[in-house]
Amino acid sequence: MLRSILLLAISLLLTVAPASAQTRKMRPSAESQRSKIAEWLDLTDSIPVFQGVSVMTDLVGPGWYAFGGDFLSTEVAVEVNLLNRFFPVLEVGYGRTDATNEDTELHYKTAAPYFRVGLNYNVQYKKKSPGYIFAGARLGYTSFEYDVDGPPMTDPVWGGELPFHFSGIRSHALWTELMIGVRAQIHKNFHMGWSFRYKVRLNVKDSPNASPWYIPGFGASDNTTFGVTYDLVYRIPWN
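Predicted structure:
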């Protein structure tokens, strides 16, 4: 049943009605397209579509903070295995920082949850191995508040000093991530693996007083940045 639903959904996406009857005649039949899609997805053999669920957590975020990093990031993820080839993923995490730049003496503080949704693709799906190499993509989002304070500023017109302290600045951010990674079995249903991520900021709400320095789930607020995860994975047994 699940195999048929998956095949039908992909077929509908690829067989959108054309604008004219002439174009329709030039297209292959719906049955022919579904057959080709089924062959590409390996839906024609005996592999079950649904092959289980895994839960995982990243060890890099807490480890980085424990060894003196400015950012703390903890997250858990749920991954669904379809055909041992496609892996839809939902990641939920919590990021925070409370740090002062020694050069500028600016202090920045924030803490908030974040979310990512995406897909991993097993590039070694034909090997039928418990370990694999994958490529993937994510879309991330967070809504957060942050505090910024630092040394007083000098008024360029009237002279004197002005306080530099802003709290409760509201912001949100949207970003995307492209990634590659490796997953390996370590004992029965336990796996470990790493991923290398390239993150691109899509949208961030700025403030006229101070831009966010750290975005939970994304990292330091540059237009692009890199990230690494090292995951401990438990694959829930499924017959």
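Summary: The longest strand covers residues 161-187.
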